[in-house]
């Protein structure tokens, strides 16, 4: 087994940083939207439910965007391949 290269380490670090940034954004967003009462140490059930709904919507949105991006990339790749084949057949 080959030892990890610095490129692999950089990719892993970048991926972890992206994950942390996304997690922190989600936490801040849902906390700001859902936590209203600071007079008690306990989290109210309405705040907890709001946080769960917020997280679920964020995750679904993120998944949907990823799916659309993948679909767009596939279409763009197919178009690029078709264009390259067309240029290749013309130049022959």
TrEMBL record:
Entry's localization field: Mitochondrion inner membrane
Superkingdom of the source species: Eukaryota
GO terms under biological process: protein transport
InterPro entries per record: Mito_inner_translocase_sub, Tim10-like, Tim10-like_dom_sf
Domain Tim10-like: 12-71
GO function term, MF aspect, one: metal ion binding
SUPFAM superfamilies the UniProt entry points to: Tim10-like
Any one cellular-component term (Gene Ontology): mitochondrial inner membrane
Predominant cellular place of this UniProt entry's protein: mitochondrion
Record's bilayer topology term: Peripheral membrane protein
Keywords assigned by UniProt, alphabetized: Chaperone, Disulfide bond, Membrane, Metal-binding, Mitochondrion, Mitochondrion inner membrane, Protein transport, Translocation, Transport, Zinc
Subunit structure, as described in the record: Heterohexamer.
PANTHER family (UniProt xref): MITOCHONDRIAL IMPORT INNER MEMBRANE TRANSLOCASE SUBUNIT TIM9B
Chain's role: Mitochondrial intermembrane chaperone that participates in the import and insertion of some multi-pass transmembrane proteins into the mitochondrial inner membrane. Also required for the transfer of beta-barrel precursors from the TOM complex to the sorting and assembly machinery (SAM complex) of the outer membrane. Acts as a chaperone-like protein that protects the hydrophobic precursors from aggregation and guide them through the mitochondrial intermembrane space.
Domain writeup: The twin CX3C motif contains 4 conserved Cys residues that form 2 disulfide bonds in the mitochondrial intermembrane space.
Similarity comment: family membership: Belongs to the small Tim family.
Protein name in the entry: Mitochondrial import inner membrane translocase subunit
């Amino acid at each position: 087994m080959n030892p990890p290269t610095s490129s692999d380490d950089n990719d892993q670090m970048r991926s972890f940083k992206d994950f942390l940034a996304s997690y922190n954004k989600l936490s801040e967003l849902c906390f700001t939207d859902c936590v209203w009462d600071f007079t008690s140490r306990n989290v109210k059930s309405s705040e907890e439910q709001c946080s769960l709904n917020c997280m679920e919507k964020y995750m679904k949105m993120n998944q949907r965007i990823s799916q659309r991006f993948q679909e767009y990339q596939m279409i763009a790749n197919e178009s690029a391949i078709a264009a390259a084949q067309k240029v290749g057949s013309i130049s022959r």
